[in-house]
Amino acid sequence: MTRRIRDVMSPDTASVEPMTTVARAARLMRERDIGDVLVAYDCDLFGVLTDRDIVLRSVAEGADPEITTVGSLCSRPPLVTVTPEDTTDHAVRLMREHAVRRLPVVEHGGCPVGIVSIGDLATTEDPHSALADISRANATH
To answer: How many domains are contained in the chain?
Structure first.
């Protein structure tokens, strides 16, 4: 069943500014038990930083997380985004086409308001799938 993104997205997404250190972003991810943060100046989405970005673009390269900024590591525009009014089918197509697991949700005008993950979509679009089971289990721990 197709739904609107607003019905499945995570609205309380963490956001940091581009000059935030990787160490601070990692601590925020740990505290909030999330795998990504939006990188933004107020309502201007600059990029997305994932836990994988931290590992591959910082730790594996030997960068100092106390001085390396998230702006130097994050995925940058052109970012693939959706709006709260887009459909889940549209989000699935974008994830497949661009090989991404998360999409920032932005209001018209570009202001970030949340994020939708492949797990969010699995639990609503294919609730009996293994990915949906795993996503529900992660949400309860």
So the answer is: 1
Task: Tell me the sheet residues that pair with 102.
Answer: 117
Token code pair at residue 138: 């992660």
User: pLDDT tens-digit profile of 73-127?
Assistant: 998 878 899 999 999 999 999 999 999 989 999 997 788 999 999 888 887 765 5
Helices (H), the chain: 22-32, 51-54, 88-98, 118-125, 130-140
Pair 76, 82: CB distance under 8 Å:
no
pTM above 0.85, yes or no: no
| 16 membership: H or E segment, kind and range | strand 15-16
- Supply the range of the domain harboring residue 107: 5-140
Write b or e for each residue in 97-130: b if 16 or more Cβ atoms lie within 10 A of its Cβ, otherwise e.
eeebebbbbbeeeeebbbbbbbbbbbbbbeeeee
CATH of the domain at 124: 3.10.580.10
110-to-90, 113, 114, 141 alpha-carbon distances in Å: 18, 9, 11, 33
